[in-house]
Specification:
alpha+beta; three-stranded mixed sheet
């Protein structure tokens, strides 16, 4: 959902099949990710409230556009509250649980 067809959806074929960088996600944007059995609608913290509903509709249309397994996942992800299954799709997601150790 990062682009703009009549639904406000952008297709980014140049990114298809690639692991994205975490830095690509912008808090003001909304993105739909189709990973086959998993479709996620990621909503940035400062994304427009009106666009949020349209993004979920677009995400549902993506989900419904092809057969999915019964165990598949269609999920809304709020920016800052990403779970590990979503985070693993990115090659450089910062580890918020990492312990900073200083040597003296």
């Amino acid at each position: 959902c990062d682009q703009h067809d009549s639904r406000g959806v952008q297709d980014l074929p140049e990114l298809s099949g690639k692991r994205l960088k975490h830095s690509r996600l912008k808090d003001a944007n909304i993105y739909c990710f189709d990973y086959g059995p998993e479709v996620y609608v990621w909503i940035g913290r400062t994304a427009d409230r009106g666009a949020r509903k349209n993004a979920m509709i677009a995400g549902r249309q993506i989900w419904d556009s092809k057969p999915r397994p019964s165990w598949g996942i269609f999920q809304r992800i709020a920016g800052g509250l990403e779970h590990s299954l979503f985070r693993e799709k990115f090659k450089d997601w910062p580890d918020v649980n990492a312990l900073n150790v200083l040597t003296v």
